[in-house]
Structures are given as C-alpha cells and as structure tokens.
Amino acid sequence: MATYTTSLQAVRRPTAPAPYLVSNTIDIAVENAAHTAIAADDILKVFTVPANTLIMACGYEVEALLTGESNDTTFNLGITDASTGGIAADVDEFVAAMDTDAMAVGAYATMIPGVFPNVVGAATTIDLELQAASTAPTGGKIRVWAVLMNIDNHGVLTPDEVDRDQLA
Fold first, then answer.
1. What is the rounded average pLDDT of the residues 70-82?
2. What is the DSSP letter of 17?
3. Partners of 3 in the beta sheet?
4. Cys-Cys crosslink for 70: which of 12, 101, 135, 157, Cβ 3.0 to 4.6 Å?
5. Number of structural domains in the chain
6. Which pairing describes strands 90-99 and 74-79: parallel, antiparallel, or unpaired?
7. How confident is the model at residue 168 (pLDDT cuts 50, 70, 90)?
8. pLDDT, tens only, 83-118
9. Domain residue limits at 83
10. Which strands, in side-by-side order, build the sheet including 118-120?
11. What is the CATH classification number for the domain harbouring 65?
12. What burial letters (b/e) apply to 111-130, b meaning 16+ CB within 10 Å?
C-alpha cells in the first residue's frame, strides 16, 4: 500500500459561513505515470480540508471509463488521517467498495447514508483508495467532489462592523 499526493488539491474556502462545492478530477493515467503503477490498497490524496470545516456531502463521478482494469475494480472514499476533535480515520467513510469499473460515464458513486454532516476539527485530507483490483486500471478519470462549509467562529457581528452604517 502506498499513499500518493500527485493530485492533492488545497481547499480554498470563503470566509463567510456558506456552503461551497470543491471538485478535483483524478486522471488514472497521470497517477500511473507518476508512480510507475497504482495497485490495490493504494491511496490517492484528493483534498486538504482546513480545520473547522463541515463536510455536508462527498462523493465521486466517473468522467471517463476506467481502462486496462480487471472486472473487480472498487474504490473507497474517506479520510485516512483522523481529525482531532472531529471526524475519525475511516477510508470508506463516504463511499465504500464502489464497483467503479461497472459504472457508466456520468454515474455517481453511492454515498453512505447517515454520515453527513461531519465536522473536521483539525486539518485533514479526503482520500480515494483503490480498494480492490486483481489488475489495476491504467486509464480513466474520476471527479471527486465535496460540499463543505466554513464553521470558524467569526465572533459577534454588530451593525457598527459594516460599511453601510458608516455611509448612513
């Protein structure tokens, strides 16, 4: 088992507490070229999630069919590094053993019900694991997405803190 950060993307979040979408397309051919070849149990780091973030939903979509793989290729989506004061380490927290080689282009992985929302207390990553494959894929694209929200304490906002009151 190896862990790769080739496609790792930092989340840039707004300061206001509102939901926002992040997505990152994982190109399997690029991952294979960067690491000789990915194999079963390898982990691809997808997003760096900042502390004090609420994960409202998380999943993935097949953007290009997997190629070169056996007919038993499954992926997990979750967290491999526990977040202190938040979500525990669980590589299949969001999607478990999804039979990705059987999915069509545009199909979404089935999310695990009941795990959302989830709090990230300390910074962590959302990770995609090639859970099983007797022959790992050599190509294909998987777009991992998450709906997040900044839950930092912004203090008490009073009218004297906004410009419009200065203008009146």
1. 88
2. S
3. 43
4. 135
5. 1
6. antiparallel
7. low
8. 766 778 899 999 999 999 889 999 999 999 888 898
9. 3-167
10. 19-27, 139-150, 53-67, 118-120
11. 2.60.120
12. bbeebeebebeebbbbbbbb
